[in-house]
């Protein structure tokens, strides 16, 4: 929905008559020598992203938004302070997790779902998330590999150390190494994770890998 603004335009009688005969849907009136033209002005609708910069899933959304040219209003969500457990946040996302996208009232959680939505909704083409069923299936497979294997094993190993102060678990570390070996297999003989060009699978995987590297 656009808001309306009134533009004051000095205009002569000939142009006024032309407007009167026009089929254009412009609302106007003419007191004295000025024509008051009401034109719809469409303001950019807010796209709020509730996020933390240290979160790998949040960073994958930021990369995707940048790639498709979408501006996001970043809402820092401090999990330590319990921002994700406040009533307003729980009403928006009962899972109380981040990232969460609020695109002018359309609310979506889960980073991989958000990334695919941003491409489908705003990208100029489908190169980042192909519409071809086989190409898209390959991208999806890499996304599922990350959420179920690579990123999950990163979380299993590091979060207990960072947040719970536990000693490193060699068995969990071995499982994480195995996940990286699988990723290496996917990348053999190719530059990108899923096919011949950059896709949202690359954004997803690179944030998981970079998080493990700095942890």
TrEMBL record:
Pfam families per UniProt: GST_C, GST_N
Residue intervals passing through the bilayer: none
CDD domains linked: GST_C_Delta_Epsilon, GST_N_Delta_Epsilon
InterPro entries registered for this protein in UniProt: Glutathione-S-Trfase_C-like, Glutathione-S-Trfase_C_sf, Glutathione_S-Trfase, Glutathione_S-Trfase_N, GST_C, Thioredoxin-like_sf
Residue intervals of the GST N-terminal domain: 45-126
SUPFAM superfamilies: GST C-terminal domain-like, Thioredoxin-like
GST C-terminal domain boundaries: 132-215
Family from the record: Belongs to the GST superfamily.
Name of the protein in question: Uncharacterized protein
Organism whose genome encodes this protein: Periplaneta americana
